[in-house]
Amino acid sequence: METPSDRHAYPSHWEADVVLRDGGTARIRPITTDDADRLTSFYEQVSDESKYYRFFAPYPRLSAKDVHRFTHHDYVDRVGLAATVGGEFIATVRYDRIDAHGRPASAPADEAEVAFLVQDAHQGRGVASALLEHIAAVARERGIRRFAAEVLPANTKMIKVFTDAGYTQKRSFEDGVVRLEFDLEPTEASLAVQRAREQRAEARSVHRLLAPGSVAVIGVGRTPGGVGRSVLHNLKEAGFTGRLYAVNKAYPEGLTEAEGVPFHRSVRDIDPAVQVDLAVVAVPAPQVPEVVAECGERGVQGIVVVSAGYAESGPEGRERQRALVRQARTYGMRLVGPNAFGIVNTSPDVRLNASLAPEMPRPGRIGLFTQSGAIGIALLSRLHRRGGGVTGVTGVSTFVSAGNRADVSGNDVLQYWYDDPDTDVALMYLESIGNPRKFTRLARRTATVKPLVVVQGARHSGVAPTGHTVRATRLPYATVSALLRQAGVIRVDTITELVDTGLLLARQPLPAGPRVAILGNSESLGLLTYDVCLSEGLRPKTPRDLTTAATAADFRAALEAALADDKTDSVVVTAMPAVGEDITGDAELAAALSAAAATAPAKPVLVVHVELGGLAETLSRAASTGPNAPGTQAPRPAPTAAETPAGAAPRLIPAYPAAERAVHALSEVVKYAQWRRDTAEPGKVPEYEDIDEAGAAALIAEALAADDDPRGIELTPEDTRALLSHYGITVRRTLPAPDADQAAQAAAALGYPVALKTTAPHLRHRADLGGVRLDLADERELRRAYEELTDRLGKPAELRPVIQAMAPRGVDTVVRAVIDPAAGAVLSFGLAGAPSELLGDTAHRLIPVTDKDAQAIVRSIKTSPILFGWRGAAPVDTPALEEVLQRVSRLVDDHPEVAAVALEPVVVAQDGVTVLGASVRLAPPPARDDLGPRTLPAAF
C-alpha cells in the first residue's frame, strides 16, 4: 500500500505511446499541475455538445477551481491521464475513488467513478478506447477493482466505448442517466477486444506507410548518385501512382523542378491543399530533427529515415535515436529506421519503391522484412531474378528494411501481413527480437493463416547488433528458437534456407503428411534424395528410376502415377541432363511436369535439377504469380492438401540445384503443415477443484511484505511446501540432520528406508559426488553412511545434511518455470542428471500450458523413450507427470509474483509421482506486461 509520501510521486511508468485506430500515434501520460494552460486550451476546442455530454449541463468554460481540481491528483485515489499529440491535449480521462454511497473515499474502497472528454476533431480515432485500457490498468495497480460511469443516453459514442471493451458489466437507467458498472479484471473477451484493436491500429499504421497517396523525398541532391536523388529516381522508375515532391533547403530559390518532379525548399512549402502522406528523409543526422519538425507541423503521416549516424555509431548516436523517436511520436508519426534501406509495395495501385533498390521487385505474394540493408539487397536479388542457387522468378508483395527499427518493427509488419490479401507467405530476417513475448503471440496468430519463415542473424554473438536496443533475456538462443517453433514459426538458419523454404510455400500447397515419392532419371541422385529424406525425418518411398533414356512423356506418366497414390503426400522429381540424340528439351520436360502436377493440385511437387537452368526457368513461367482479384479483405490461410480445390490453377514448381536444399525445405513445410493441423484443435488449460488460489495469494503477499528487496526473495522450504500444496503439489518432507543422533531421530520419525542427502549448494542433486545415500534400511546403515559422508565431504555444518523417506523407484525428472523479462513465463522439462544437462536435452513451452502442450513437452525430449518403457523397462506414469506440469503452469500463470519454480527431482514411478525437492522465488510483478494496455515500445 502506498504511503503518504509516495501518493504524490509522479508515476512515470504510466507514460506510453499508443497507435490509434487510424494508424497515427498519441502519447498517454499522467496530468500534472503544470498542465493548467494545456487543459484550458484543450477545453476551449471542445464543442458545446461534447461539454454538455461530459457535465450534463451547459459548461462553456472551466473555472479556476475546475482547472485546479483537474490538474491536481494524488495518483492513488484521484488520477487523470491525457492523450497528447504535438504536446497538446486531445483527450482526457480521470477516475475518483468512491465508497458504496458514491462519496470520495480512500482504500480499502475498490470502486471509482470514471469520465472521459475527447476533442471533437479526434473523435472516432479510438482515443477513448486506448485511454480506457490505460486508466483501467492504473486503477488495478492502485487496488481499484470496479469502475462506474454515468452517461447521457444520447452520448452513444461513449456508451459504445464502455460496452465494446469486453469487461463484465451491469447497466441501469435512472433519472434520465445511463449508469454503467464494470469489473476491471481482464476477461477473455476484453483481451480479445484489446488484441483486435491493437492489430487493426498497427496494421493501419503500416498501411499508411506502404500505400501513401503522396511522397516527399527530403535531401534530394543536385547531381545523380546521392542517397536522396537515388530514392527519388527509384520512385519515378517504379511508376509510383501518387504525387512526388523533391525537397532540399540548399537549392537556390526559383528552382521549381528536379528530375521532372516539383521541387520545394521545405516540405512546408508544398501546396497546403495536398496531404503529404510519407516523407523519405535523406539528410545528415544533425539536420534530421529540423526536417522531422517541419514534417510534423505539415501533417506528414509517416517518415522513412535512411540517414545513418544513430545508435549504430555509439552512445551519442543512441541518444540521437531516442530523441528522433520521441520527436516523431510527438507529432503522431510512425518512423521506419533510422539507417533504413527503405520500403517497397509492388501493388499496381501503388507501385512504391521508396528504397535504395535500383530495380522495382517483380510483383508476387511474398512479404519480406529485414533489419539489414545488405541482406535486403541479397534477398530481393534472389527473389527478383534467376540466381543465388535457386532459379526461377518469384515476386514480392511488400518489402520493409527497417534498419535500426527504432519504431516500426517486425511486430508491426506482422500485424499488417496478417490480413493483407496480397501476401501469402511472410519471410523475415531478424538480427534481434525487441519483444519476443509479443512477437511469439503475433507469430502464432499469423501462422494459423499464412506461413512465417524466420532466420535470425547474430544469434550466437550473445549481444544485440549495434544500433538495436532489445529487452534483456536470460534464455539461450536454442530456447527462444524452440518457443518460436511452438508458435508456428518456420525457423531456418541461413538466407539460402529462407529463400528455399519461401519459394516452396509460395508455389505449392501444404503436404498432408511426411510420405515422399521420389522419381527421376538418375538412380544415384534418387538414392541421395532418399537418404536426405530419412535424415530430415521424412518417410520416403523407394526411388523410382526412369533411366537416362526417359522422355518427357515418361516423366509425366510417372509423376501422375505418384500423385495418384493415396499413400503419397508429396513428390520430389530428380532430373539429370540427358546426352545424345532425341534428348528431352527443358521446355518439353517443364510442360510435362506442370501438366502432371495439375492433376493433383493438393500435393506439392519439387524438382531437384543438375545444370538444368532452362528447366527451372521454364517451370517458373508455367503459371502466374499475380495477386488475388481486387476486393479480397480477410486473411487467406495457406491451403492444406484437404483445402486445395481440384480445379485450381497450376502452381509454379520450385526447382533446386541440390537434393539437400529441396528436401530440407520440404521437411520444414511438412512440420509447419503438421503444426497447422494440431492447432486446429487447441488444447485446454485444465481446471483443478483442489487449487486454492486465494490461499496462495495470501501466502505470497505475506512473504513479499516481510521483505522489501526489489530483486525478490527465496521462499523457505516450509513456505515452498505450503505454497505448492495450495496447487495440489506435495513435496516430500525432509528433516534436518546436523549430527548422527538427530539423523537417527529424523529417520525414526519418517520411517525406514530413508535417504541421507546433503543440501549444500555445491553438492545439491549431485549423487555422482557422493552427496546422496539411498535405501538406508536401519539406524546402523544410516550412522555408517553419515560417518562416511562427513569424513569424505566435510563437516555437517558445511554439508547441511537432511533425512527424507524413500520414494518409489522411477525416473528422475526436473520441472522448472521461470519468468523471463523478454519472453515471459516459460515452463521447462527434462530428465535429471548431468547427461541431459550436457546435451541440452530440455523441452520448453510458454505458460499457460494446455493439456496438449503437457503431452508434447514430455514426448519432445530426446530421452523420452526412457519414460515409455525403453529396453523392456516398465513405462512410468506420464499422465501424473503431465498433471504436475500443468499445476506448475497454473501457479505461475495465476500469480505473476512467482518469478521461478524448480521441482528437482520429480520421481515418476509406474504409479504416481513424488516431488523430492522444490524451491520458489518471488519478486514484485512488473507494472506492465503483454497483458496490459496497448503501448508502443519505449524510445530506448
User: How many E strands?
Assistant: 39
Helical residue percent band:
25-40%
Overall shape? flat
Estimated radius of gyration: 32 Å
* Unreliably modeled segments: 1-6, 386-392, 622-634, 641-649
Order of strands, widest sheet: 1-2-3-4-5-6-8-7
Q: Average pLDDT, to the nearest integer?
A: 89
Q: Describe the main β-sheet briefly.
A: 8 strands, mixed
Instruction: Give the strand content.
Output: 15-25%
What is the count of helical runs? Answer: 27
What structural class do you assign from the helix and strand content? Answer: alpha/beta
Distance between the termini: 30 Å
Short précis:
This protein has 940 residues and is an alpha/beta fold.
Question: What does the model show?
Answer:
The chain has 940 residues and is an alpha/beta fold. The protein contains 27 helices and 39 strands. Helix 15 (523-535) packs across helix 19 and helix 26 packs across helix 27 (878-894).
